Amino acid sequence: MKYVVFIGMLLSSFGVFSQEIALLKYKGGGDWYGNPTSLPNLIQFCNEHIGTQIQEKPVTVEAGSVEMFEYPFIHMTGHGNVFFSEQDAENIRKYLLSGGFIHVDDNYGIKEYLERELKKVFPDKELKELPVTHPIFHQVYNFPNGLPKIHEHDGKRPQAFGLFEKDRLIFLFTYECDLGDGWENKEVHNDPENVRTKALQMGANIIKYVFEN
């Protein structure tokens, strides 16, 4: 674990870690592998429209791994159960505090499990809803009303929740929105092109914000 701490300190001192992003593999039986075409499509969109040079294929990292510390942005999704061991929770906490960022997109049904497991990571932190004035909604693309609604489930409005360390946003949870579904190949959900575009633009805002803060 000392090695993990060292890696975290090292990466924090260098700012942006690499031009790669990762998908988080977690325990508990939930479908961490959901939306398989979403991240490649988001990467392609960002490289074409906002000038990033992200490797085309995202990497998969496990919650308790040292490899997490190689990536500035880690994405997590799923419908079902999430479980972090104590080692996973400690590793995630150190990753976030050393400069990393995790985005969790609710694929419908992950919220109760995520909130439970986040208490292991940060017992004293609470998810806070981001105001529509937060910079993450106003990067390259402007979303004056906050998150776009991509898919309807329960008639609830889309919400963005965050965890902060001092003034730095370190963790983003997008809820009742389904950004990842909007990033997927068109034939997967048959979403209208304007809906997919909004999802990709919001995803690009998140990537740009993470890479520059």
TrEMBL record:
Domain of life: Bacteria
Entries under InterPro entries matching the protein: DUF4159
Domain DUF4159: 21-211
Official protein name in the record: DUF4159 domain-containing protein
Organism: Neptunitalea chrysea
